[in-house]
Amino acid sequence: MLSKTTVDWRKVQPYSKFAQQISFCELLGLNQEITPISSKILHDWGRFVDEDCLDFEIYPVTVEKCRGMFDYYRTRSGDNIPADSTDIIPPGDYDFDIPSSPFSNPFKIVCGIPSFKEKKYDAEQPNSRSMLRVKPQYMPLFELNDAIIEAVMHRDNVQCMVTGVANADVVTVAWLVPPPFVKVMQQLEDESEYKDPNQLYIPGNAITLQKDLADAFFENAIGIDVNENYRVVLFRDIGPIGEPFKGATNIRPYFKQPMNRDRFKGSDDIFLRGHFLHCLYVNFYGGEITRQYTQEVVERQMKILRLIGNRRPLPHNHPLWKKELSREIYEYYYNSPYKSDDDAVDEDPWDSSDESIDEMDDVSNIDEYGDDVNR
After folding, report:
1. I need a surface site. Which of 46, 52, 126, 197 has the fewest CB within 10 A?
2. Compositional bias (Acidic residues) at which positions (predicted)?
3. Model's pTM, two decimal places?
């Protein structure tokens, strides 16, 4: 798989050795085992999210750890991968080079974009963030009416347009771009005509899906790349329903497969493109380690590990040390590689009966990012 790195190998920059993903200066957050990409696909997606995308070439680098937290040196270790290469990028660490502008990013950096599901949840909250707020009169447009459901089911022959499953009990109708989020359509080139949510309240903006696939579409975890011959792209692991698409480079949805494409009209391409564009905004950007683990998160985790304050640090065999962020903190704090349990015989053992674990130390409530999963 491709690992995280940043743009300028001549400088010390944040890098995560344990996150098995690719990242070009906070631009990408893709897992090659789930979403295989080539340099050409990378460029096509870059131009899709930003029509002013600069041409760039990718090259492999060797990564060496520095003393600081998340700090690594990188040096070039191979030739550039041409921009038009269709070969899947091999696992490894990579930087990119923009010949016309060496210290620029190839396209706009936008991170922290929520999925449709997250946007809808935020829109429903009484104190919704202003950028995600939906006008009250448009909130009902999240729900499909009976006329649209009936029209889409009839159009798609009550079959999931991705998997082909035909069973009224497991197939549902879902929006591609929820009408209240009409601004998503305005991000498509030459599609500024979509200004009113009601323009999206049509059967062409809906698709039939297996119920256990519909939620993944709503979370922008899977999409259909119209520009690449309707390739089904899985962006992250969604469980058993996503296994057929994991690592695939040429699977098309059921309604666009050669034996079926003359039988089904399917959803309108413009809304498939709008949905896929948002998938890229949600999954394409990000991945840079200091975005994943901010200073506040790191400090909070250090407090949980009792490395800050007057309390005795948690014993090495405490379950919290098994978390990825905790192991990185261990190497930084103790200036030595994290030791396995077998290597920790010289450490004071920890037993759950030794002392009570207060709320901050509750292992079950803290995820790998140091966040409370029950918050």
Report:
1. 126
2. 343-375
3. 0.74
